[in-house]
Design a protein that fits this description.
The protein is of the alpha/beta class. It is about 35% helix and about 20% strand. It comes from Streptomyces malaysiensis.
Amino acid sequence: MPLLPADAGHNVRAWQRRTAPADSDGPVAPGPRVAVLASFTADPLVPHLGTPLHDAGTHPELFMAPFNQIAQECLRDDSATARFRPDALVVCARPEDRPAVAGGKREADAGDPRTLEPLAATALDAARRWGALLVWALPPLPYEPSRGVGDCGDPRGAMARAVASREAVRARLAVDPDACVVDLEDTVRAVGVRHARHPALFRLARVPFTEDVFFRFGGELARVLLARNGQGCHGVLADLDGLVLDPAAPFGGDSAAELASALDELPAGRRLAYRTGHSVAEARRALATLAPALARLPAEWIAEGRTAVEDLARFAGARGVTTSTIAVLTGPPATETDTAEAAPHRLVVCDGSADQVRLGLLDAGAFDTVPPVTAYPGGTTPAAEGNDTATRSDGADATPGDDYAAFLRGLGVLAELAEPTGPDLSAEADVAARAHDFTLALSHSPERFASVGDGGRLLLSAHVRDRYGDYGTSAVIGVRAAGAVWHVELFSLSCVVMGKGVEDLLLRSLVDRAAERGATELAFHYRDTGRNHPAVGFLRAAARHHRAHEGRDVCVTSVEHTAATAGGHHEDGGGADD
């Protein structure tokens, strides 16, 4: 394969080395601060985005925003993403990432692709406020089979609506200098639909794609960011000795003509240079005989016996760029080792196939250009001209100018807090085990608070739903009552309902319940794991007197524990990430 890095495993191992505390590669150029917001678990993207950015000579800082909270993060200037101060805001949203309602069915608008258009507008507004570049990932077309031949021919059918919505977003963002687009459909097609999806991992951890998709997607994102920052490919250095002139070179005759055709497709302004260890005159004569089509291409010549490393440095230096921005094209085995040391990020090794040359140069960024900003006559995009999919949906789908409170009101969230009925606590145990972001991290199990005959303990769980669907049991709370003080030692929230104001609803309900039973204080005990900052921040902000519905005041306090003071109960991970 003409790809570098060679495979997904290379990226993962390289990123682990580079993020290790003892890692020190010497001084590097400051890299972009990239925030990723996704409607699914996108953590596997990190090494595949970070490694190519790092290989390009930068030191990127990557931030993975909370799961499926794109609108919530974009609407608030005090959100975790806003506080990160991103240079680039990558947004990956799939319309099918809506919850299923009870019985496994979806609400009518749950997978409606039109919900992506107002979401893109919200993300663009946030990127402008934060001074960031929006990189919107168009979602792949839905994998679900069409609903029969009638749906295939219906311009309002499922696939037609998905295509129209994708093109409406593409057209909207094409006119804006603060945004650019990558297309996940291209990535899925390159991998193959059957090999791109990971249904089992999606059910377990909401990761919809295989590692190969994240590998290719990360490379695409890195190339977009590098191109926008002037760090894309600035030229192609073709090693004539390894490609054509050496006796064992893979190209000659018809294949050399195909190679010339591939190089002739380089974008205007992308400089091409030939390097050889022979003299220019000697190499020109040989090339005219062996590959006349290559001899006719406008190319700079770098010759007179220098090494490939020296020739690469000379070509890059003449352009005022680093060697990592030059794609090196060679054939095995003449100079592969030599050039690999000089240009590990953009080396393309070919064995005689012009198609392999094209794919290799494509992966090396040789065909990349700065994403253009398209101006449409009259300032009207095609999406706004007679396309009913451009109409905005109301309610929970945020548009520019909506504030966070209005967004929450539009969701219509209902959270019913009650004591579990019956001995089966599997749903509560699952929430407690899988929660890592919103949790008190003391590792108390729900069973601890459901002890029969123990009047000092109380277990509560919450059933959550909103206008998009029914999430089932999504929160669990464990209380140990000691006189007028209720000690809350278990408070876990499923990630699928975070960012919807559920924790506020549950706190109000808990305050009312405590007041009814004569308690005057709610003391939340927690351990800061570094990952559960949503819960820690919420508790610190909630530490004050709260008025119960019957008029009584209940004081909310928080008590931080270390691993040593947590009574031997602390969370070391385990279970699938929620």
